[in-house]
Write a structure and sequence with these properties.
The complex is a heterodimer of chains A (141) and B (105). Chain A has 141 residues and is of the alpha+beta class. In chain A, 32% of the residues lie in helices and 31% in strands. In chain B, helix 1 runs parallel beside helix 2. In chain B, 43% of the residues are buried. Classes of the chains: A alpha+beta (141), B alpha/beta (105).
C-alpha cells in the first residue's frame, strides 16, 4: 500500500474547487474514464462539504484531512475532520427513490451519493469528536 | 468567478441562467437570485443549466427549493437544457424525474 496523497485543507468552501481538480486528475491518471472521475469528484466534494457544514458548522478556520492510498487492486480515499461527530443514523445507506415532490427533502443527499459512487464505504464517527469516511474504488482490470 | 448568473425576462417570465460551477461556495448566490426572481415571473420560472460544468448537492438543494417556492406561488418551474454534469448529479440523486426539463422555456 502506498500513500499517494496526504493533505490538509482549510474548511473554506472556496477551496473545494482546487480539491476537485486534484481528485479528478488523480482518478483519471489511475485508469478511470472521465465519467467515473466526475463521480468520484462529486463524492469527495460531498464528504468535504459535509465536514464544513455539519462537523464544523460552517467555520472556515478548521482542518479537513484528505488522504489517498493505492494498492494493486484499488484506490482508497479518506476524508477526516475533528469537528462534531455525525449522528450514526445520518450515515446509513438508504434506498434513494424518486421522492414524492410534496415531501422533497434533499438533505443527506451527500452521504447517499458517496455510497452510490464507491465500491466500499465506511463511516467512522468519532466517539467524542471527529469523523472519518473511507471510500474505496476497485481499479479497472 | 467560478459561477456567473444572468437573470433574463422572457415575455414576463423569468429565466435564470447559471454558468460555471455550482457548489457550496457559489450555490447561496444562485439561491438568492432564484428566490428574488420567482415573484417577478408572470407564470413560469426556468433555470438554464446548459453551461453549468459542475453541480453538487447544495446546487441540487437550491433547485429543489426553487421548485417548491415557485409552485407555492402557483407558477411553473423547469430546468432548461441541463448539462450532462447536472443530469448526472440529478440521476445519482434520483431527482431527475422530479423536475420538468425543457430545451427552452
Amino acid at each position: 500500500m502506498q500513500v499517494d496523497i496526504q493533505l490538509e485543507v482549510r474548511s473554506d468552501p472556496k477551496l473545494m474547487r482546487s480539491i476537485r481538480g486534484l481528485v479528478k486528475s488523480y482518478v483519471c491518471q489511475s485508469g478511470f474514464g472521465e465519467d467515473k472521475a466526475d463521480e468520484v469528484v462529486l463524492a469527495i466534494d460531498e464528504a468535504c462539504t459535509n465536514a464544513i457544514r455539519h462537523s464544523y458548522q460552517g467555520e472556515q478556520d478548521k482542518v479537513i484531512a484528505l488522504q489517498v492510498v493505492s494498492e494493486d487492486a484499488y484506490i482508497e480515499f479518506e476524508v477526516r475532520d475533528s469537528g462534531q461527530s455525525a449522528p450514526p443514523e445520518n450515515l446509513m445507506r438508504k434506498e434513494l427513490e424518486a421522492p414524492n415532490p410534496e415531501d422533497l427533502k434533499p438533505h443527506g443527499l451527500g452521504v447517499q451519493l458517496i455510497y452510490e459512487v464507491f465500491d466500499e464505504v465506511v463511516f467512522w464517527p468519532g466517539e467524542e469528536e471527529g469523523n472519518c469516511v473511507v471510500m474505496r474504488l476497485n481499479l479497472p482490470k | 468567478m467560478a459561477m456567473d448568473l444572468d437573470v433574463v425576462d422572457q415575455d414576463g417570465n423569468v429565466v435564470l441562467a447559471a454558468k460555471g460551477e455550482v457548489d457550496l461556495y457559489s450555490s447561496p448566490q444562485m439561491r438568492e437570485a432564484l428566490l428574488k426572481a420567482i415573484p417577478k415571473a408572470a407564470s413560469a420560472v426556468g433555470v438554464d443549466l446548459s453551461e453549468v460544468v459542475y453541480m453538487d448537492s447544495s446546487g441540487v438543494a437550491t433547485l429543489v427549493e426553487g421548485l417548491k417556492a415557485t409552485e407555492k406561488g402557483g407558477k411553473t418551474f423547469c430546468l432548461v437544457a441541463p448539462s450532462q454534469s447536472v443530469m448526472k448529479v440529478l440521476q445519482l440523486s434520483r431527482l431527475d424525474t422530479v423536475f420538468t426539463i425543457k430545451e427552452t422555456l
